[in-house]
Structure formats: C-alpha cells, structure tokens
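Worked example 3 (structure in, sequence out).
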C-alpha cells in the first residue's frame, strides 16, 4: 500500500511492516508468543519483496544467522520471546564486542502477566549487561516507526539494537499510518578482521570492550533525540513512564481531568537513557511517580540520577509499593497509584469488590489432540505394571503437551524450560533414582534444546524413557514449521529431518514409533520401555496436530456416536480422558459435540463398548 495509507494492524504486523519499510534483507527467529506473528506476517510476502525470512531450530542459531548477515553489510531482524534471549545470550554478549556493518535489530517480546510464559522476565536488564542500545515502543504505530529508527541507529553505531516489546504492544491492534518502503541493493561481503571477530585473544577482547564503551558514549547523544521520547503537559508534578504504561497513564489522567496538572515524560530509549532531557525534567519537577511494568528498572536509575545531580526530590514507584512489582499493569492500578501520589483517597467506586467468582477456564488440549492419547496410554502402562502414579516421575517440557498437567490426566510433574525434561530425567537417574523416569518433549522443542541432553543420556547409558511427541509442527505458538517437516516459513519445500534416524544417529539403541490413536499398541510399547534396563529408550509418538488435520480434511467429518442402550453413564469417557468434545447431560449422559474430530480414543476408554466411530 502507498505511503500515507492508514491500516488497522496488530503490533507484530506493524513491526513486520516497519521491517519492510526499513529495507531489511534477512529475518530470522524461533516461534514464541507474543513475538511469532512478525515472521508469520513477513513469510507471506517474503518472496514477493525479496526478503529472506525463516524459522530456525532455536534462538541462538537464529541470532547468529542474523548477525552474520549484518556483519556482511545486510540489514537483519531476529525475533524471540523473553526466554529466547536467554538462549541467545552467549551470542548476544559477543555480538556487542564485534558489532555489525548492516543494521541489526533484536526483537525481544516480554510477557508481563504472564500470559504464555514461564516467568515474568524483564529483558531490559540485558541492555545493561551487554551495553547495547534498547528501544521500547508504546503502540503499533511506534512499533513500526521505532523499528525503522532502530535500524538507522544500528548502522550509525555499528551495534545491534535491542527492540523490547510487551504482550499488549505485540497483540494490540490500532490504526497505523504507513511510510515509504526503502530498498537497499547490497551484496553480502564479510570482512576479514581477526581482532574484531575472534574472541580467542584476551588482548583483543579488552580493546573491543573499550570500543564498545566508546560506542555507548556516542549512543547517549542519540538517546535524547529518539523519536519515541515524548513529553506531554507542563505541570510541576511529574510521571516518568515507558512502553504501554504510557497509554494507561494518559487514559487515567484524561479520565481524572488532571492532564494539565502533570508533566508526563515517556522514555522511548531505555539504554542509554536520554540524560539531558531527564536532568531538565528532574530540576523542573516537585515530585515524580515512575510507572513501569515488572522490575523497577527506570525507577532505580531515576533515583540514582537524582542523587548524582544533587536534586532533592520525591521519587515514588515500586520500591514504596505505589506500583506493584508483579503482574501486568492496567488503568485501574495506575489510577489508584496517581490518587495515592496526590494524597487523595481512592474513590468508593474503586474500593467496591464485586462478590463474583467466575469458574476457572484453563486452556484444554484440543479435541482429538494426539498428546492426550499419548499421556493416557503412558499413564495406563504405568498403573498396569503395578506402579503407583507417584512412583514414576514424568518430566514435562514447553509446548501444548504441558496442558497434560490439568485434570483428569495430571500427567507431568515439571515444566522448567526448553529441553529440561530430558536433562531433569537424566539428573534423577544420575542421582540414583531406582524407579523408571520419563521425559516428554515435543518435536520442535527436541530440535531446539533436547538433543544435547539425550546425547549425554546415551553417553552415560542412562535408563531414562524419552517420549518425543511429534505432532508435525510447532503447534503452541501458531503452527510454525521446524526441521522435522518438509516446508519452510513461506511454504516452499525444505529437507525433512527424520527424528527416528536422528535419534539413532545419537546412539540410541531402543527406538519405537507409535501412533497415539492406537491405544492398545501404545500401552504395550510404554510397558516395554518401563521394563527396559538397557540405556535410554526413545518412543516417538507420531500423529499430526488435530487442528491441522481437520483443516486439511475440509468439510469431511469423522465423528463418534454413543449407543444409548449400552451406555451406563459411568462418565469414564469424561473422567479418564477429558476431551472437550464430550459433554455431559444429567438426563441423557455423555453427548458428543460438533467439535469432535473422530480420533476414536474414547472408543477404547469406554468400558462397555458404547462408543463407536462413524
């Protein structure tokens, strides 16, 4: 669309558009909510606009691919969610020393709440640790415009630039005014510069550290002119904020009719800070409220700056509990903080607590999810061999299958981080645990972080059971491809890595492939694995994600029916399986909803053969 057009875009789509306008050549990443839609959007048009866009096995690989492209003079963007930057951290630290030649932006999406992440990680501290510039937008328009400025800044400083977002910016939709699309006709050329790119020399490393510190001094000049910095109002009572919190602050001040009473300063560049503007702000304010999500990142530095500049000023925020340190902020929380900041009581309306307790609605596995069948078969095998449920630890991992923690399965015991299921199973055996230990891990997660631990399990001949839940896609984050499928991000062909052959290549002797819908056979294979005492036993539970399978089948329906004459209303189909397609009616008994995909697992579960596939 032409420059000047106004389009409704999600924040991630706005970032994708910004990458297009910035003339980016290479985009890499690993799927992770809330960042996934950037690459999903770009992959649809990548071939048309001549942009290389792809998912990679993990964030470290994705980062290093993008780093190489930018080192060769091209512009690159790498995307990841908050825990992903931990995986890429080793490469990120060294990238700060070598720098880049073409612009490189690292999109890191944090998840206050959290909504879909194991921790409320605050990735802003990576800016301090790496000494790399960090920018944070407040809305989709700023996300698009800010990422373009970030690429320009990256090339001025010859440094990667961190672009930090949060869930509400990534997934909020609003009108975005489009800009001109740039095109850079660059050919990759990697310079041979050993002191810059080789970290084996400690003398060179020290010199590169000095180089980096000089770049930070230069970056301070750009911090004050960052287009995402904003100052609103001329009051002597001040609020300093950043990101989506800025939108909440403005909404609250407008609703309270106090906008003219305050000066609101939004910081768009988090590191290095815009010191000149902050110094002026400190001198002109009588007291300051710092509004930010997660850790007191800005507040700590504002307090330090006030002390450094000898400004005797009240600073309130998280340290004195004006703003909560945990969870996501919202206008109600900020309104209460502003009223307290002004020494005004919270209104009665705000104090009213409605005595309503809606039922919990945790996300279930989808109808026909092959993971449900896998865990059912595994649990059945454990009990059929005489073990108690508490005898056999089942280590979980990151993915859809983590939903097996919910009733009625309640299967997994842990969900730590990517790939930890195999490592923790290995650790229990390493510590001398004398009963079977099971690790369950998804196909994409296995490629991401599971292989090193399995390699060690083979090396130590550890008697662990590893169940690779191969549903042929990275399902939890929106069905992105991984090395185990035959297509790329844009749908073009790719070489499919055979997981069974890969596992065999790692040295595993005991490998079985099961179809989880075949419950009797699956139970027998799991029983064989539980009896095994000859090193690692790998079971690949292979069945396409039910959602993808249903989309491929189109209007064709394969459902199950219930013979009411045989049904004894024992509820086994519900209490043992937990499929959301089976509902309960007190008069009729179980009812099959139209969401059923006809997987037939409930046929096996029914003790009186009252269910059949039609």
């Amino acid at each position: 669309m032409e420059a000047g057009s106004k389009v409704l875009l999600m924040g991630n789509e706005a970032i994708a558009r910004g990458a297009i306008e910035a003339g980016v050549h290479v985009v890499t990443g690993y799927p992770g909510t809330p960042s996934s839609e950037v690459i999903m959007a770009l992959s649809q048009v990548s071939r048309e606009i001549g942009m290389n866009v792809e998912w990679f096995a993990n964030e470290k690989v994705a980062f290093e691919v993008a780093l190489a492209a930018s080192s060769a003079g091209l512009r690159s963007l790498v995307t990841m969610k908050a825990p992903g930057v931990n995986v890429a951290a080793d490469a990120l630290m060294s990238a700060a020393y070598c720098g880049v030649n073409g612009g490189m932006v690292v999109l890191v999406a944090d998840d206050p709440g959290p909504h879909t992440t194991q921790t409320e990680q605050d990735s802003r501290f990576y800016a301090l640790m790496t000494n790399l510039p960090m920018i944070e937008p407040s809305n989709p328009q700023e996300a698009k415009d800010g990422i373009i400025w970030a690429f320009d800044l990256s090339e001025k400083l010859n440094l990667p630039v961190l672009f930090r977002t949060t869930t509400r910016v990534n997934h909020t939709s609003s009108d975005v005014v489009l800009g001109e699309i740039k095109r850079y006709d660059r050919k990759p050329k990697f310079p041979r510069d050993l002191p810059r790119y080789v970290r084996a020399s400690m003398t060179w490393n020290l010199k590169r550290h000095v180089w980096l510190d000089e770049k930070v001094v230069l970056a301070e000049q750009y911090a004050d002119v960052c287009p995402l910095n904003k100052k609103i109002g001329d009051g002597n009572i001040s609020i300093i904020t950043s990101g989506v919190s800025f939108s909440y602050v403005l909404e609250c001040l407008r609703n309270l009719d106090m906008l003219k009473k305050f000066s609101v300063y939004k910081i768009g560049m988090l590191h290095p800070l815009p010191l000149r503007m902050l110094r002026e702000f400190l001198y002109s304010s009588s007291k300051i409220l710092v509004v930010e999500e997660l850790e007191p990142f800005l507040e700590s530095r504002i307090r330090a700056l006030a002390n450094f500049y000898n400004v005797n000023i009240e600073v309130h925020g998280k340290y004195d509990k004006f703003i909560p340190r945990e969870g996501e902020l919202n206008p109600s929380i900020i309104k209460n903080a502003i009223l307290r900041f002004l020494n005004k009581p919270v209104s009665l309306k705000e104090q009213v607590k409605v005595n309503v307790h809606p039922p919990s609605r945790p996300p279930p596995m989808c109808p026909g999810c092959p993971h449900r069948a896998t865990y059912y078969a595994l649990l059945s095998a454990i009990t059929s061999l005489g073990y108690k449920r508490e005898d056999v630890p089942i280590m979980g991992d990151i993915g859809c299958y983590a939903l097996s923690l919910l009733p009625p399965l309640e299967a997994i015991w842990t969900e730590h981080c990517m790939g930890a299921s195999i490592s923790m199973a290995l650790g229990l055996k390493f510590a001398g645990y004398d009963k079977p230990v099971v690790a369950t891990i998804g196909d994409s997660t296995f490629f991401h972080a599971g292989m090193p631990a399995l390699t060690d399990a083979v090396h130590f001949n550890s008697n662990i059971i590893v169940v690779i839940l191969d549903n042929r896609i990275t399902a939890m984050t929106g069905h992105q491809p991984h090395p185990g499928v035959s297509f790329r991000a844009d749908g073009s062909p790719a070489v499919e890595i055979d997981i069974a052959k890969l596992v065999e290549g790692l040295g595993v002797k005991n490998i079985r492939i099961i179809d989880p819908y075949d419950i009797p056979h699956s139970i027998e294979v799991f029983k064989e694995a539980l009896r095994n005492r000859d090193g690692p036993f790998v079971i690949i539970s292979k069945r396409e994600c039910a959602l993808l399978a249903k989309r491929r089948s189109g209007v064709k329906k394969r459902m199950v029916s219930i013979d009411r004459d045989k049904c004894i209303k024992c509820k086994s189909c519900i209490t043992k399986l937990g499929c959301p397609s089976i509902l309960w009616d007190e008069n009729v008994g179980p009812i099959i909803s139209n969401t059923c995909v006809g997987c037939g697992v409930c046929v096996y579960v029914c003790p009186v053969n009252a269910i059949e596939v039609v």
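Notes: The two ends are 49 Å apart (CA to CA). The CA atoms of residues 390 and 530 lie 15 Å apart.
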